[in-house]
Amino acid sequence: MTESGSTYRVTVRDATTGQVRWTGKPFKNLSEGEAPGLLVVPAGGKDHLVTWSEGATGGDALSKAKQMYAVDIYAADGSGDAVAPAHHVEIPASDYGTERVKDAGERLLVPVSDKHQVALDVTTGRTTAYDTDSLKAPGCSSCSFGNEIAALTERDPVVANGDGSFGVPGSWDARRITPAEADPTTGTVWPGSGGHLIARWEQKNLGDHNVWAVLDDRTGQVQASVLCPKPFIATADAPDSALSPNGRYLVSGHLAFDLQTKKGYCFEETDDSKPLTFDSVTDDGTAYGTSLTKGSLTGTKAPVQLTLATGTPKPLPAQEQGPIADFAGVGVFTHDEGNVPYLVVYRHKG
Fold first, then answer.
1. How far apart are CA 11 and CA 194, in angstroms?
2. Which end of the chain has fewer CB atoms within 10 angstroms, the N or the C?
3. Running along the chain, 350 residues long, what does each successive block of 10 average in pLDDT?
């Protein structure tokens, strides 16, 4: 995404050749002081490119401006040099809105206010409004307050409550699929990649581990799980995840899963080992990420590689770096030189 004066535009390149596939029409940014948001959302068997911004629009000497989200949705496989979005959607925002439009799984989640959220279907541009006060997490009949939309399936919201309940109302309830080692009253869930959810529970009987799992978002079925030492400092942040192009392997922060063999691996910090975080994974089950050496405010990162067939990580030479993303046949890397950012793409070896 590039800036020209008061407008922005997107450019899409072929990952294997670097050639420009298409360039979007210039659009106005509503956000003051920051660039528009940019997301790639897979839905309906296709990738969709989404830009969004939030700010005041309209208004004159007599009428007040209105706070709005402006969302443009492009088909990722377009062509041309001034491509218009397939859908342009404007959604009212609260006057004090500071939340971001989120990829919530299979739809976008637009936070209009504390109690009012909108799901946006990127394939059709249609919106569905949800009042969180009227939603109830499955398995929690007494939970009248504190319910929130944790993720979105193609049709329904995944509703969670602070008491550990979550699921899709009328479809599935997390307490019925909780792994045997987990305390069902401690569940938390986040959107994952490719129709998956990432869930976490504390271990039963006040154990010193957490149970992490990958779930199918439509059924809640556990696809893989792993016991993981509790971190020294707990975080409530949603873990990012990445899926291999063939859909077999998934990495999410310090976790790595083989969804075919249902095995999971955890690389949380322990007394003897540094924490590992993974950014990408290939079709052959090779994950790339970094280790973190604590001892400063930010820590020192070093590149690592994990072979999921064995679950064994290894360090890479310090001058190397892993790909930030992997497509079938190529790896994508970033590189800074003289404060100029570069995107570098290499074909797979052999």
1. 24
2. C
3. 91 92 95 91 91 89 89 94 96 76 93 89 96 85 78 93 90 94 94 93 94 95 96 73 94 96 94 91 95 68 94 92 87 89 88
On whether the CB atoms of residues 107 and 118 are closer than 8 A, the answer is no
Q: Beta-carbon neighbour count of residue 330 at 10 Å? A: 16
Cβ(69)–Cβ(94) under 8 Å?
Answer: no
DSSP string, 279-334: EEE-TTSEEEEEEEE-SSSS-EEEEEEEETTTTEEEEPPTT----SEEETTEEEEE
Q: For residues 29 and 26, what is the distance between their CA atoms, to the nearest angstrom?
A: 10
How many CA atoms, within 13 angstroms, populate the side-chain half-sphere of residue 350? 0
Sheet hosting strand 188-191, strand order edge to edge: 188-191, 196-202, 209-216, 222-229, 263-266, 255-258, 249-252, 242-243
